[in-house]
Design brief:
This protein is of the alpha+beta class. It has four helices and 13 strands. The protein has a domain of about 160 residues: Beta Barrel (L,D-transpeptidase catalytic domain-like).
């Protein structure tokens, strides 16, 4: 009886050791989480972060429906939410000339002034010693071009978007139905940062469609790649002079 008890105890001990070894050497697969919430999710962990973002889960557009009356019946038709997914053309690479770079720039404007050349699609941040930091931008499409002088009156990170009523009506006539409000985020057309110009509706902001940089595509706002607008945002103060030509 004693011998059987000893054998049983040994068997249990070996089983526990094997289990611990298996637990120790097994492959721990990385946690897959959506990139848009990775930072917030990881900051909530109490101990060392062992999770790893291994792929990006694309956000799907929110599809809503409206009723269309046909022959006395109502048919449900999808409503296009253009704010969630920009229409991407065949090209997706930016011309190298639109990448940030320091260039010679002879101007009478003081350092810290922003000069936007809407014809050539460049934004210049005036520096000292005849230099400027140049970025590629997207500008107003035909019929929405403008020129003038303003100041940066406000700055915002991951700004919410409130499309003007005129824009909502204009896009609805094309079959594009914009939301009245869209919270900041990767899908937001204003992108990562926004600098508001005077009391106008115009902004210098990021974009969810970086392939449009270098083109006339906006309703008058100056759009930049997200990484570029973040860089500019850190260099520009509220009150900075903005010249649009």
């Amino acid at each position: 009886m004693i011998r059987k008890s000893v054998l049983l105890a040994c068997a249990l001990a070996l089983s526990a050791v094997s289990s611990q070894a298996a637990e120790r050497y097994k492959v721990v697969r990385p946690v897959i989480i959506e990139s848009g919430i990775a930072g917030e999710w990881m900051t909530q962990l109490g101990g060392p972060v062992r999770a790893q973002v291994v792929r990006r889960v694309e956000r799907q557009p929110v599809v809503q429906y409206r009723k269309v009356k046909r022959r006395g019946l109502f048919d449900a038709q999808p409503v296009q939410q253009v704010a969630y997914r920009a229409e991407k053309p065949a090209y997706d690479k930016i011309d190298p000339k639109y990448l940030p770079q320091v260039v010679d720039y002879d101007t009478r404007y003081k350092p810290g002034t922003i000069v936007i050349d809407t014809v050539n699609r460049f934004l210049y941040l005036v520096m000292a010693d005849g230099k400027a930091r140049r970025y590629g931008v997207g500008v107003g499409k035909p019929g929405f071009e403008w020129a003038g002088e303003h100041k940066v009156t406000r700055k915002a990170e991951w700004p919410d978007w409130h499309p003007p009523k005129e824009m909502i009506a204009r896009e609805a006539a094309k079959g594009h139905y914009l939301p009245a409000h869209m919270p900041g985020g990767e899908a937001n057309p204003l992108g990562a940062r926004a600098m508001y110009l005077g009391s106008t509706l115009y902004r210098i902001h990021g974009t969810n469609a970086p392939w449009t940089i270098g083109y006339g595509v906006s309703s008058g706002c100056i759009r930049m790649r997200n990484q570029d607008v973040v860089d500019l945002y850190e260099r520009v103060k509220v009150g900075a002079r903005v010249i649009v030509i």
